Amino acid sequence: MPRLTPSFLRRAEKINPLLPLLLRACRDLRSAQNELRWLTEYARGCNSGAHPRWKPLLLDLCKHRSQGVPLQYLLGSEYFGELEIRCGPGVLIPRQETASSVSYLASRLRQGDFGDLNLNRLRVIDVCTGTGCIPLLLHRLLSRCCHDSSSLRLLGVDVSPIALHYATLNRQLLLDSLLDESRTMAPLRLDGIISSLLSMSFIQADVLPSSVQSQRSTIPQLLPALRHLGEPSWDVLISNPPYISSRAFATTTSRSVRKFEPRVALVPSTTNTCFRSKPELREYLHHVNQGVAKLEEGDLFYPRLLDLADEMSVKVCLFEVADLSQASRVSLLIRSREKWKSVEMWRDEPTLPPDGDGQEPKGSFRVLGRGCGRSVVCWR
Ligand SMILES: C[S@@+](CC[C@H](N)C(=O)[O-])C[C@H]1O[C@@H](n2cnc3c(N)ncnc32)[C@H](O)[C@@H]1O
């Protein structure tokens, strides 16, 4: 990272005395100026009863930013596709690459590429939902192209109460904005869109099997929770699970991610699960490997998600992954199960043509798009 020289900081200070603070976090002048504009707009917007003077608030925000607090936590939201999603400490900030995968999934669903699925009655479960950004974007993209979207059903699941708080809030804000929109759109068409959003729900459940000791935990396991809801079967399973090993977390993530984003969203946590010790975890991964996939610690959720997909009669799965290596391991695992007709790997921008670098199929799997390996998709 380039060092900030005193003369550069003095130059920035002459433009605006707050810029040197922001430069500590974003390093180049252009980004610092953009952030200052957004933070100023935000602070002015808070200029109400609780914050009668916006300037002290702006100074406070810039100080937090200089300590590395993510801009999205300070502004309270991030864009995800065309949606503005609320987020804050304790929940993962939605990423644009995830939105690209979800948008591409929606376009392939609309084209009917995954076999015989009725979009009007599609049932989608998002496991590890965080802010709820995935089901909310998918609802946005699918509900407007359905004849009658009132039977479209989406469910988000997460173990974290903070995530569920944000997911529920985001659904409510989207509902409010749809009701505003209903003044300009044909009411009948919007009725279906609103009723499918009203039926979208978020529940607390644990995806990993719990240990005998923690079976009295108040957090239910996913399958019993779905049976309790009376909804054991789903058509599409999406998941952006924690997928970074503890070692990669310590060595490859940025300081801001490590310090401010929730570790439980990034690294598979084995606390309270039946894989509490490293040998137990290794033995489980060895057992599910079936000699082909050579799974690693960060891959823990994928075999479990595939088991759940079978139990829920899921027809299409989309799993987010860290890179092409993890995509290859997950694809091999899927193929070894002999239950899926097709498997594809998608890069960050699945709709862009390949840039000619390393685009050859990986182990005979089709790889689409440009950028880093981002998702694995399979269908029956
Ligand atoms: C990588 S984040 C994804 C959040 C969101 N889907 C997104 O794309 O921004 C993973 C999420 O998994 C949740 N999670 C972690 N362990 C879990 C478990 N055992 N069962 C259910 N959810 C879990 C975390 O709370 C976190 O919200």
From TrEMBL:
GO terms for molecular function: methyltransferase activity; nucleic acid binding. Keywords: Methyltransferase, Transferase. The keyword Membrane does not apply. GO terms for biological process: methylation. It comes from Lineolata rhizophorae. GO terms for cellular component: mitochondrion. This is S-adenosyl-L-methionine-dependent methyltransferase. InterPro entries: DNA_methylase_N6_adenine_CS (IPR002052), N5-glutamine_MTase (IPR050320), SAM-dependent_MTases_sf (IPR029063).
